[in-house]
Write a structure and sequence with these properties.
By secondary structure, the chain is mainly β. It contains no helices and eleven strands. The N and C termini lie far apart (40 Å).
Length: 116
């Protein structure tokens, strides 16, 4: 069974940093692309960024490009989202994602709040 477990969320002041982690279980992590999405109150879930199975390619939404960075650790089967220069508009529940055989798998999500 595919399981994705997010950690590292919380409250941070504008301009601060936060690092999210996603632990992956139940599938071949080393051959799977991984992604991060977020959903703010009253808004649809949106793509934040992704990383290829090889780790060579990363992709970001324009709204986070240059501020967020995705990386993966094959030994630990984890994918991280480093978030810098946070702004209140980054406040959302963040979800880890992977797709296996056309089926989307999601973590339960973790809250990130950017506020002074």
């Amino acid at each position: 069974e595919v399981q994705l477990v997010e950690s590292g969320g919380g409250l941070v002041q504008p301009g601060g940093s936060l690092r999210l982690s996603c632990a992956a279980f139940g599938f071949t992590f080393s051959s799977s692309a991984m992604g991060w999405f977020r959903q703010a109150p009253g808004k649809e879930r949106e793509f934040v960024g992704g990383i290829s199975w090889s780790g060579v390619f990363t992709y970001y939404a324009d709204s986070v490009k240059g501020r967020f960075a995705i990386s993966r650790d094959y030994a630990k089967s984890t994918v991280a989202l480093q978030m810098d220069s946070l702004v209140p508009e980054d406040t959302a529940v963040y979800y880890c994602n992977t797709a296996r055989y056309g089926i989307q798998h999601w973590g339960k999500g973790i809250q990130v709040t950017v506020s002074s």
